[in-house]
# Entry
Amino acid sequence: MKPAVRILALGIWAILGGCSLIPEYHRPDVPVAEQFKEDGPWHVAHPEDQNKRGDWWSLFQDSVLSQYEQQLEQDSLELKVALARYDAAQAFFTEQSAQLYPEVDLGGNVLTNRESVNRPLRGSNLPNVYGNTALSMGAFYELDLWGQIRSAVASAQAQAQASGEDVESARLSLQAQLATEYVQLRGLDAQIQILADSIEAYRSELQMMQRRHDEGIVSGLDVARSQVLLETTESTRYKVMAERALREHAIAALLGQTPASFSIAPTKWEVHYPPLPKTIPSEVLQRRPDIAAAERRVVAANAQIGVARAAFYPQISLGALGGFQNTGNGALLTAPNSFWSLGPLAFLNIFDAGLREAAVKQATAQTQEAVAQYRITVLGAFREVEDNLAQLRNLDQEDQHQSLAVTAARHTYDLATNRYREGAVSYLEVIDAENAKLRSERAELDIQTARLLSTVGLVRAIGGNLPEQHP
# Structure
């Protein structure tokens, strides 16, 4: 091979292997605080290891919740939708990658044709009816001189990766949603039990009031007040039961079941607060799948700029076609019936009224949009962590004070009841004490439920399991 030919071949090989019009990618910058504002006892740390998302719901020590979370993986229809979208994205990536390789086709035909006698420019002595039998094989390969195909492949690969993160995001979101609905349901179970206990006590109290009224000890006003308290509490219990039914229906839908075929038996609620970490590493936000997906979409949009830029340059492809053809008479696979075609094909646009320039601007604008969306996602993640840290810090203090309030309300109720029996106070004070006791007990349950829900929110905000603490 002559030196000039060798140099030309090496030059073409270098162009094929290294030319790319994709802008150099840099991960978008986002403002990051040195520590969380609402950290309380938590501070930003930078551990070397990173924890996986894991079975975080086991922190709540509830076997029924754990069973439903495992069932969610198999039966959630929303998760199946996300998986189907991921499969489609993977298939599109494979489709784009196939353009990096030559396309080889095999064709053939056995035709009988009739020509018009009056066809323009028809030669004399040509038959009106003739056969056309052919067998051919062809190959086509587009030279990716400007990286257009490779840019499209890079974009499709990033989109597929983003779709994979969407699956993880959907999985984490559904897990957190299921835990949220379940915690709310168990909180309502506890409220129903408190109301049922109160109703039983109020009903006994009403019967006692009725006897005392019949004996002329108390007036009918005390009986009426006692009945009002009983019926009001009964009404509240049915309202809470209706709310519980909604939570149960929501869990059924999450698990891909109809509400009619699904039920959760009421049980005594034992609250277990998961141990919270003393430090929240800033790196845990990197495992949030929505942040990873947003960053991959920036990469995909950036690669599309390379696709749009490459359209300004010539498109060159190589084609080869060969085979055998005759009129249907005699042997087909013979040397006289052979044909072939070989050579490059080129295309260069001269004028398109700004079409390609507009495509570059569109791809650039879409990249800017993806960058902004990435920053929004990251800042939103920091806000969610701050929100849940603030909630947990304040709810912990609120829970302690409310527990004291419940103890005081129960003591007040006991005192009011004893004083009423001794005739020292009116029954109205007893009713006030009973209402205060019931309100404080329900408020305590609301706070306990909110603490657990904020824990679920924190898990979701940091993308999975709470960080392990190292001495």
User: Anything to note?
Assistant: The CA atoms of residues 25 and 286 lie 18 Å apart. The longest strand covers residues 129-143. The mean pLDDT is 86.
